[in-house]
Design a protein that fits this description.
Helix content is 27%, strand content 30%. It is α+β, with helices and mostly antiparallel strands and 334 residues long. It has two domains: 12-163, 2-Layer Sandwich (Chitobiase, domain 2); 168-328, Protein Transport Mog1p, Chain A (3-Layer(aba) Sandwich), CATH 3.40.1000. The strands form three sheets. A seven-stranded antiparallel sheet has the order 8-9-10-14-13-12-11, sandwiched between helices. The protein has a five-stranded mixed sheet with strand order 4-1-5-7-6, with helices on both faces. Strands 2-3 form a two-stranded antiparallel ribbon. The longest helix has 24 residues, at 141-164. The N and C termini lie far apart (56 Å).
Length: 334
């Protein structure tokens, strides 16, 4: 049986409410889930909860999309821990923590199933409820947890996109690219960009490039390539890295995934892998990359659209969602 960690108490001074008539502040990361149920039930269901919610994605390692921590309702620190951002409440309508959330819904939650209620115990909180039948049966819990994962992951992705564009959307740059380079790409205002011939780079290294770099490169070949082969696309990417990247990068084959797909109706392939700096650099560095190649027949061009991340010691899933979001804005017929 996998043991569930317990959260340390939050400093009392940080838990003061903002006003007498307001709910207190919310704490916790967007990908940290506090699972709340009785100890007896947790013993029976913990394995399936971990299996269905702590899924992994490949960045530079297998990284959990969500981390689940079990909390016993009514425990010593319950008054503080119930204020965390993401709560997963599992129980029957007779359980106090379920009843409080149902009351907070104003009648919107009235029976078994998967539900979400905002601001049950804190302002920006989302409580996801799995309301069990009155007899406490957990039949079908795995499918319900799959639904919970879909909800949480889509909400996490939406939040990551919103946080990325807090600096504003650079629509003026997108229009400039359409007029002068023949493609459109929508990046946040905080991104800088530069052009050398047919290679355009978009970079965000705030607040410190030693801690975080997000970079996207767009280039093309004309006439278009006859076919999109993985080795040819990798070689093309390496040529660009050698000639234009600020630091050299070596493509890592281990863990590489390749997908034949279509982007806005244009045939293409996507490669997701890792990059590392060469051994002779004297210091280790690396991160995930996403490389897309697609052909636009109307322009007689094959495009290489590449994104890479450097975020040592940080969780990378949110940044990868943001880079994918920018890549998805690419349009080659404008």
């Amino acid at each position: 049986m996998k043991r569930s960690p317990m959260l340390l108490p939050v400093a009392a001074a940080a838990l003061l409410a903002a006003g007498c008539n307001e709910l207190p502040m919310t704490y916790g990361d967007h990908n940290s889930v506090i699972a709340v149920t009785s100890p007896e039930r947790w013993e029976r269901i913990s394995d399936v909860v971990y299996e269905r919610l702590e899924r992994t994605v490949q960045t530079v390692r297998d990284e959990k999309t969500f981390t689940v921590t079990c909390q016993e309702p009514g425990g010593r620190y319950w008054g503080d821990l119930r204020r965390f951002r993401q709560m997963l409440l599992i129980g029957t309508p007779e359980d106090s923590w379920i009843r409080e959330a149902m009351d907070a819904s104003g009648g919107a939650v009235s029976g078994p199933g998967v539900h979400q209620v905002e601001a049950v115990w804190s302002r920006d909180q989302v409580a996801t409820l799995i309301v069990l039948p009155p007899d406490g049966s957990v039949e079908g819990l795995g499918e319900q947890l799959d639904r919970v994962y879909e909800l949480l992951d889509e909400q996490f992705r939406q939040g990551a996109r919103q946080r990325m564009y807090l600096s504003g959307v650079n629509t003026a740059l997108a229009d400039t690219l359409a007029a002068e380079a023949g493609f459109r790409l929508v990046v946040p205002q905080v991104y800088r960009w530069a052009r050398q011939d047919s290679v355009l780079a978009f970079r965000n290294d705030n607040p410190d490039p030693s801690e975080l770099i997000r970079e996207i490169t767009v280039t093309w070949r004309s006439p278009a390539m006859g076919s999109l082969e993985v080795d040819a696309v990798r070689a093309w990417r390496q040529e660009i890295a050698d000639a234009f990247f600020s630091e050299p990068q070596v493509f890592v084959e281990e863990g590489m995934t390749v997908e034949e797909t279509s982007f806005e109706g244009h045939p293409g392939i996507q490669i997701q892998a890792q990059w590392r700096n060469p051994p002779d650099r004297g210091w280790p560095a690396g991160g995930p990359l996403i490389t897309r190649a697609l052909t636009c027949d109307a322009q007689d061009r094959t495009y290489l659209v590449d994104a890479w991340l450097y975020a040592p010691g940080k969780e990378k899933y949110e940044y990868m969602v943001q880079l994918e979001t920018i890549l998805d804005t690419f349009r080659c017929e404008v």
